[in-house]
Backbone:
């Protein structure tokens, strides 16, 4: 499947995603008829099947650094699995956790981010693949109600910007080795992506758009990836949104979806997630699920790029 980069082929391979339906109760799959549940997020938004993937539930306590997730399937037992903190895999402000019962079981990574006030949380969970399938999914949620910024006249009166880190899992796996075991039985570790997100939101128009940039595929030697455009879309009355993703500069070539929700006082934060059916022209059949938690420009702890806007 790797076309252009033979050096990548020796390090990592692509593997297909598994089917799943964690957050929307109306849909079922032939192999998973009992796992579909209504979203448990405090936000009124519904996370799409494309973004939620195989993730059924997710719980994170920032104080105790405890992360619990339920994935369809085969992560560990019981159904809600407590993951282990793994600081070596952190990306930007986001924390990493892992679980693997033994060397012949799937290797899962969970990444999570939370806003400074605890109002917004987002994350992604997934394995690197085994037996021809990867099992991955992303989520976002809000504590409390939607509180839009005040809308006035002139600049910086209802139109605001957000910025922060981006992290993602892919269906490219880094193979593992176990002496004496046939390679066809071994699980892989998921190759990750890092990047940055910038959003502009207008709470008079109730619309949002933005981009993901500085993206890198985190191989042994990181590889630069194309920038992405998050196409303009409506903000719902509950503060949630969903839209399409394109390569930056390539118009009307839909490569996936993004979604999110605003939270905090005056919508000081926004969290969201992505699901991409392709993210790089140099390979075939690549898939990506990512997430972000962003701070509004002008709020304490905002990103350095905010010096270029009028918060």
Residues:
């Amino acid at each position: 499947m790797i076309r252009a980069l033979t050096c990548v082929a020796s390090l990592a391979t692509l593997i297909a995603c598994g089917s799943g339906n964690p957050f929307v109760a109306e849909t079922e799959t032939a192999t998973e008829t009992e796992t579909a549940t209504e979203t448990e997020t405090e936000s009124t938004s519904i996370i799409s099947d494309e973004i939620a993937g195989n993730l059924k539930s997710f719980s994170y306590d920032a104080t105790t650094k405890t992360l619990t997730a339920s994935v369809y399937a085969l992560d560990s037992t019981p159904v809600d699995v407590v993951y282990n903190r793994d600081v070596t895999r952190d990306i930007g402000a986001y924390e990493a956790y892992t679980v693997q019962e033994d060397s012949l079981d799937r290797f899962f990574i969970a990444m999570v981010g939370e806003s400074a006030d605890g109002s917004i949380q987002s994350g992604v969970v997934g394995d690197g693949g085994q037996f021809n399938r990867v099992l991955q999914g992303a989520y976002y949620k809000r504590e409390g109600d939607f509180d839009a910024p005040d809308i006035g006249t002139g600049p910086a009166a209802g139109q605001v910007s957000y910025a922060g880190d981006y992290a993602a899992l892919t269906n490219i796996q880094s193979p593992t080795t176990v002496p004496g075991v046939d390679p066809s039985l071994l699980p892989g570790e998921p190759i990750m992506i890092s990047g940055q997100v910038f959003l502009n939101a207008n709470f008079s128009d109730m619309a949002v758009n933005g981009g993901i940039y500085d993206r890198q595929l985190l191989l042994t030697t990181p590889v630069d990836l194309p920038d992405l455009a998050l196409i303009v879309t409506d903000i719902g009355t509950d503060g949630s949104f969903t839209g399409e993703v394109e390569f930056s500069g390539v118009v009307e070539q839909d490569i996936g979806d993004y979604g999110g929700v605003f939270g905090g006082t005056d919508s000081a934060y926004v969290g969201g997630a992505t699901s991409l059916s392709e993210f790089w022209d140099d390979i075939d059949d690549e898939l990506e699920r990512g997430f972000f938690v962003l701070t509004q420009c002008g709020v304490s702890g905002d990103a350095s790029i905010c010096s270029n806007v009028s918060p």
Observations:
- Residues 114 and 121 are 4 Å apart (CA to CA).
- Confidence is low (pLDDT under 50) at residues 1-11, 19-44.
- The longest helix spans residues 6-9.
